[in-house]
Write a structure and sequence with these properties.
14-stranded antiparallel barrel, globular, 7 helices, mainly beta
């Protein structure tokens, strides 16, 4: 249970949310204590994390991808979880229908009562189409509110969730496209008032656009190796706010690009290798200038800054996210996150996985390795993932997560006693 004074209500909960949302903590106070003469090179080396509303939308929802460094845009043998990575890929699913359940106790080195759950399912429609639905639920633990004297005034469990619906179709044997529509709900305050402002649950709508292209090349063993290229522009949607008196903020619109390579060694052994690139398509906060007294630099009542004004519409924000970093090209390149992974599959029943994830230290500093295993028994598949941080002390240290997949068609057709 977490105790919060009313006077710090919105700030305290937002701090916890930001920590849980993979360390998107802004440190502009450090920058603003310096003088205004920093060069682009110096700015590129400063901590300048790109922050958004509802960052939980970027959390990897399933254990298979989590075990391979959070790759997923171009996976082979897609399953029910693939709808969140690339809806277009569900066209290639072996099974006609299926669903999956996942759970992860989140950031247990920091808090003990935060958890992330995911439920998803899909069904193929005819020979060239598929539909899916999904729900994530992120519980931030129990918060106890108090008055100025420390007397308890109530409890609340902040929670967030999106509801997804997706559709995919195949245009050719090699090319497919998919879309997801998403309703997003986030309630961090329990509809409480603070300083004359009523805080409420934030709601919004978003969508994904997905593409997948697959081909084959001649293998050295006489067979054919498979290659897939995937793209997903995720969470294209409205800004959100927790109060009508607050300025609306961007949600985590994200560009995912990935490639996969599959080599079949023989009838029983297969190796798949993947690489993904991710970038948030939201504005980078500029460097606000201060004078030598540490005060905001103002000209004609306008606060001065280096960079580009982030107060723009969603489409303009997506476009300028490629060139608005105050540290120039070097900082822009730092905003790309890299991940890679591989899986060894034996007889479609046993899988070993591993991967790495890299994010620049100036943009959040998430850097870790991952390990995982998958076991299939008749109509059920169990996947597990374990995170190995590169830092000695890490909020995600000892992070475990599990996913359980069901092939509904096989379950229905299985013989009965």
């Amino acid at each position: 249970m977490h105790k919060v004074d009313n006077i710090f209500l919105p700030t305290s909960i937002m701090k916890k949310t930001a920590t849980i949302a993979l360390f998107t903590i802004s440190s502009w106070g450090i920058l603003q204590s310096q003088n205004t003469q920093l060069s682009s090179k110096q700015l590129a080396g400063q901590l300048n994390t790109v922050t958004t509303m509802v960052p939980f939308l970027t959390i990897t929802p399933d254990s298979r991808s989590a075990a391979m460094g959070d790759v997923g845009v171009a996976l082979f043998n897609p399953d029910a979880n693939s709808g969140s990575w690339n809806m277009a890929n569900l066209i290639n699913a072996k099974n006609k229908t299926g669903f999956s359940m996942s759970y992860a106790p989140w950031l247990r080195n920091l808090v003990s009562d935060v958890g992330f759950s995911y439920l998803t399912g899909y069904s193929k429609v005819g020979a060239n189409s598929a539909v899916s639905g999904a729900m994530r639920y992120f519980s931030l633990g129990n918060i106890q509110f108090t008055d100025f004297d420390g007397n308890p005034t109530g409890q609340f469990t902040p929670n967030e969730f999106p509801l997804d619906g997706g559709y995919a179709t195949q245009f050719t044997k090699k090319f497919s496209m998919g879309v997801n529509l998403r309703f997003v709900y986030s309630n961090l305050t329990g509809n409480r008032a603070f300083s004359g402002i009523d805080y409420k649950a934030a709601t919004g709508g978003a969508g994904d656009v997905n593409l997948l292209y697959k081909t084959e090349v001649k293998s050295s063993n006489g067979g054919y190796d498979k290659i897939q290229f995937g793209l997903n522009i995720q969470n294209i949607g409205s800004k959100m706010t927790y109060s009508s008196k607050e300025k609306r903020d961007f949600i985590p619109t994200n560009l995912k690009m990935g490639v996969g390579y599959s080599h079949k060694i023989d009838d029983y052994n297969t190796i798949n290798v993947y690489a993904d690139i991710n970038k948030l398509l939201v504005p980078t906060r500029p460097y606000y200038l201060v004078n030598y007294n540490g005060e905001d630099s103002m000209i004609n009542g306008i606060r001065q800054y280096t960079g580009i004004d982030p107060d723009v519409n969603v489409v303009q924000g997506m476009i300028q996210s490629f060139y608005d970093a105050p540290g120039g090209l070097k900082e822009e390149l730092n905003e790309f996150m890299l991940s890679g992974g591989a899986e060894y599959i034996y007889d479609d029943k046993f899988t070993l996985r591993g991967g790495v994830f890299y994010e620049s230290k100036t943009k959040g500093g998430r850097q870790y390795g991952t390990l995982g295993i998958g076991l299939k028994y008749q109509t059920f598949t169990v996947n597990a993932a374990y995170l190995v941080p590169f830092a000695s002390r890490h909020p995600l240290q000892n992070q475990m997560r599990f996913s359980l997949l069901f092939d509904l068609a096989s379950l229905k057709d299985s013989p009965k006693d």
